[in-house]
Amino acid sequence: MSRELTRRLSQLYVGLALYGVSSAVLVRAGLGLEPWGVLHQGLSEKTGLTIGVVSIAVGAAVLLLWIPMRHRPGLGTVSNVVVIGVAMDGTLALVPEVHALAGRIPLLLAGIVLNGVATGLYIAARFGPGPRDGLMTGLHRVTGRSLRLVRTAIEVAVVATGFALGGSLGVGTVLYALAIGPLAQFFLRVFAVPAPDAGSTVVAARTPRGVIIPR
């Protein structure tokens, strides 16, 4: 196995694991989750399943939607479905609930920054988009609508559904939306692996709203 492939695989799985950890930290902060996290938590509240299991189930369901859009998943796509959910449940089992606001605010900030690190690691590994990103780009291609509009519509629908089911929507959701693009873009440059054909660094596909997040 080449050194480059070893590095890319390491980045893929470390990034996915850290993404799950960061999502769990946001849950423990209790100040609002990222859009898909709101949906996962809401479904978890209604079904009694752990949030990690719900994340896996939702990811698998979204991946099935790729079939009519003729998207082909990569190693990173399939790994995304499983690793993030497992890492979330593992972290939630280890990290206790925090009740004091003085502890929840640092957890929120740490979770958002760690999510940016994880995003940079995962996307820069170049093993395919996450299932939720594939849904976005697939709908963009099928409908002819802009990526901005498609992504906004998906996230609004996801947040509204999750909130209606009991998911956590709050200041953390807004702060995440504002911070994750710049953070992910920065860490994509930090962890970029040179492209094999040109020796240049790969940053990431970008939408009019910023970096595509690997969910």
Question: In brief, what are we looking at here?
Answer:
This protein is mainly α and 215 residues long. The protein has helices at 3-29, 35-47, 51-64, 66-69, 75-94, 101-124, 131-143, 147-165, 171-191, and strands at residues 206-207, 210-211. It is built from 9 helices and 2 strands, in the order αααααααααββ.
Helices and strands, with pairings:
Layout: H1 3-29, H2 35-47, H3 51-64, H4 66-69, H5 75-94, H6 101-124, H7 131-143, H8 147-165, H9 171-191, E1 206-207, E2 210-211
Antiparallel strand pairs: 1-2
Main attributes?
2 strands; YczE/YyaS-like; 215 residues; mainly alpha; Membrane protein; disordered C terminus; two-stranded antiparallel sheet; membrane; 9 helices; 72% helix; transmembrane; single chain; transmembrane helix
Largest sheet: 2 strands, antiparallel
- Structural class by sheet pairing and helices: mainly alpha
Query: How widely separated are the two ends?
Result: 28 Å
Which percent bin holds the helix content? over 70%
User: Could you tell me the number of beta strands?
Assistant: 2
Low-confidence stretches: 198-214
Query: Main sheet: which strands, in order across?
Result: 1-2
Q: What string, H for helix and E for strand, traces the elements in order? A: HHHHHHHHHEE
Measured by DSSP, the beta-strand proportion falls in under 5%
Instruction: Return Rg in Å.
Output: 17 Å
Shape: globular
Q: Averaging pLDDT over every residue, what do you get?
A: 88
